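Table S2 (text version). Query chain:
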Amino acid sequence: MNNIEEEQVEAMAAALEEQLSIVYPRGPHFSNDCNNEGDDNNEKMTTDEEGTLRNSFQNLIQDLNYSADYQQLKVAFARAAHRWKSISISNGSDQMTDVIPSPQKTSTTFSLFDQLQGGFALPVTLEEIQEASSAQERFKVLEKIDYVDDLLMDWKEICHILTTDLFDSSQATDPELALQIISLHRKWFDQGRSSEEYTPLLYSICQNLLETLGTIIKVEENNLKKQNNNRESQGLLSSSENIDETVVVSLVQNWRDMWLDLMQRNQYSEDLVQDMESCMFMIYLRNAPSKKSALAQKVLALVDPNARWFQSWMNHVATIDHIISLLCMEERDSMILSELWLRLQTFPEEDNNNKNPSNYAFQLHSISILSITLCRTRLSHFPWDVINQKRNVTCTENFTTIIDEMLDLFLHVVVSLSMLANSNTTLTNNDFSNELKITILNGVEAILEGSRCDNESDFERRFGNVRSILQQEAITGDKTITRFLNIYNI
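Corresponding structure-token output:
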């Protein structure tokens, strides 16, 4: 703040302090004391005085032409109220001892609009945040922000501070501060759901968590490269590898909840979503290059095995080309979609979900991604040349073979889920099982309908395969499968 700005702030602070002293000459402890009727000197603000004070503040705000002026007003208000409280308390401390009401724990901050309604708690200023001496101190200051309105003016600067502190604290031995900062993001996000005007802020809050997760994973990848498989270095890594696993879990869960909420409330914005799209594809869909990357993917798969986060996003995307361009992003000389398919070539045996539920959920999640994509692109526009780019066979043979393989995979999964429906496995003892079957059966339907349009003989062959597998005696009582078969009058 330069000298001219400082003079302007000081002038506003002096004027505000004078207004406060006129309306509340006995200080802040008497400003809201309406119950001390026995005190002849009890001073309450009259309706005229309240209106005068409010009008003064409203006029101040209306005269502000630039955002910098608003920032100066907040600083001036903080100074004025601090001096007013200090002077009033020091001058009247002896007289106020007997009449100060018992302290109650209340919120220490209000939005500026609440201040115009008669409250005088101070908004947190950017200066307070920047002047905090440590990440822990900054968190204590940020924690006082109870209204998302107070974030809007300085969000760009606050966002940078939050992202830096969140990453730094995630690398600490005790991740408690990182978890607290994530909770702060969640609190502000929940508050911002009240109005569409906060949508850009909500996207930024959601992106903060995703970018921090990406940075954590990137740092681990770089560390692994530097170690060059040195056993001694690996030993050092194993001793600290669990430090921020809880942070990774919290980042994934909260990001997924926020993202799904934005999509399901139709808050999709092509401009706002761009920065997150490629990041979420690289984190959650590519082959995991490190332990934390694999952890993030498995956590997402466990909380969302039928990929609702992906489905809800795809419902809003305008063009198939955009979807395919993201799925065909190159990473380490291969594409995400081809990696996705290759990892499903060893779908686990039926009992494998008991041995490693997270791996099983991860593969189901990957299958859901394929099925959802196929439903949107349909058979004719699905990038078959990408999904099986390493096969050295003719295009026609390649496409026919891989479509048959994908159909067999979908049917295998549906039967597996149906047969495990009454087991004690973690994954199948919840509502996800039926949702998963519906998601994958939608992929089966997309293949059948595409085959019907392209090649009648392929349709008859695939239809017969579907009928024989889904009419097995072991799964005849499955209502989800029965409803699907009824569509085709089987």
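Notes on Table S2: The longest strand covers residues 330-331. The mean pLDDT is 78.
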